[in-house]
From TrEMBL:
The keyword Glycoprotein does not apply. It comes from the Bacteria. The keyword DNA-binding applies. InterPro entries: Homeodomain-like_sf (IPR009057), HTH_TetR (IPR001647). Residues 30-49 bind DNA. This is TetR/AcrR family transcriptional regulator.
Amino acid sequence: MSRPKNEQLKAQIVKEAEKQFSTVGYKNTSYTTIAEACEISRNLVQYHFPKKESLAIAFMESVLSRSMEKLGFSDIDLRGNFDAIKKVGTVFFEKLLKKPGTRLFLTDIISSRELTQSVLAFNYEWALSHVGVNDESSSEVKGESFEAGSAEDALIVAPVTRNPSSPQSRTAQLENLEKAKRVVIVRMGGFYELLYWCLKSNSPFNVEQEISVVVDAFAAALNSSL
């Protein structure tokens, strides 16, 4: 069964945006350049994607999916598996750092405070969706603080606490998720600060080592009140 026309057009826009992000970076990609390549109006691109950053998030989701495929991981393989999440994160950033175009894309993203905030939200929600947290509780924690859309909320199915019906357990769970969110903001924010400095100074960056620091801290924060 073919996709509705609007969905086909959105897919075409995303595909073209990904192509341009990969070659000329984020800042040099615009609604106009995407529209011209797709042979549609700029207004139509903006209608489907009111925020350009949503196209950047879609691109990063695509790179994450390809990273998982390269490692032979499914979503189920990643659920609660922090070692696997480290591997996917490592391959993800190595892919972005491999070519000049995607390196420029990454530099553009993390040089903007607003864009970095959206990417931090994406990082947090994607990681949270693979560690076994129920969707109701995670939504309460992330709903007010992060504006970016959920990465893969359908995968958030298993409760963190042993007795989620208990008020004390629920309170502990929400506090734990809030702590985990703060850990991601601090640790991943530091990760991006260091990465940006390395990119600008052309210094080496040990992706595997730095990702491990972030994921280990995230895991410790989630497990601390179990």
